Amino acid sequence: MLIGVLALQGAFIEHQKMLGKCGIESVQVRKPEQLTDIAGLIIPGGESTTIGKLLNQFSLFEPLIDKAKNGMPIFGTCAGLIMLAKEIKNSNQPRLGLMDIVAERNAYGRQVDSFEADLEIECLGSQPLRAVFIRAPYIEEVNNGAEVLAVHNKKIVLARQGRFLAAAFHPELTEDTRLHDYFLNIVKSCC
Ligand SMILES: NC(=O)CC[C@H](N)C(=O)O
């Protein structure tokens, strides 16, 4: 099973390392034809307006949406969450719009307001997950088929809609592979 990591900007190397720890082969995705061979895709954190611009420049926008609509699972972290959202508060920036969630960018303030927190995530077991939030968004609202998987200080920070998973934090920056494994199980169930 080959997993793609969108490698236009942001923390893609760290996701690849994490996938390696999970025993999974990965490829950096920069070209539409690279979407053919992958079973799932991770969209890393970074800067969502930049990622949106680069998706256009690299002619990846439409092929990616097509592939996702045809069944490819996607895991978006931080800026990747914003890319997955149908609605982004106070912004008309380009997005994939695959999840019925409303994202609020930079919701915790500026870069200096980055923080770590222990999250209770039922689907990962009883041990809390250490989460790193860097200029993070949160999910203001989930609609229709989207479900909330984790909340921090009353704000939604992890959500799933079928094969799409969105985290407001950076799961690739700790040693804990459980959330990547959770995504890989979604991919396996779609293969
Ligand atoms: N760490 C991140 O991915 C930050 C996201 C960034 N603040 C944005 O709005 O796109």
Please provide a written account of the structure.
Its EC number is 4.3.3.6, 3.5.1.2. With about 190 residues, the chain is α/β, with parallel strands linked by helices. The protein has one domain: Class I glutamine amidotransferase (GATase) domain (Rossmann fold), CATH 3.40.50. The protein contains five helices and twelve strands. The strands form three sheets. The chain has a seven-stranded mixed sheet with strand order 2-1-3-4-12-11-10. It has a three-stranded mixed sheet with strand order 5-6-9. Strand 11 (about 155-160) and strand 12 form a beta hairpin. The longest helix is centred in the last third of the chain and has 13 residues, at about 180-190. The protein is globular, with a radius of gyration of 15 Å. The model has no long low-confidence stretch (mean pLDDT about 95). It binds glutamine (GLN).
CATH class: Alpha Beta
Integer tally of domains: 1
What portion of residues is helical? 25-40%
Q: What coarse outline follows from CA principal-axis ratios? A: globular
CATH superfamily: Class I glutamine amidotransferase (GATase) domain
Tell me, rounded to a whole number, the average pLDDT.
96
Distance between the termini: 9 Å
Unreliable segments of 5+ consecutive residues: none
List SSEs in N-to-C order: EHEEHHEHEEEEEEEEH
Spatial order of the strands forming the largest sheet: 2-1-3-4-12-11-10
Say which molecules are bound, naming each kind only once: glutamine
How much strand?
25-35%
- CATH topology: the name is Rossmann fold
In quaternary terms, these chains amount to single chain
Helix vs. strand class: alpha/beta
| CATH architectural label | 3-Layer(aba) Sandwich
Total beta strands: 12
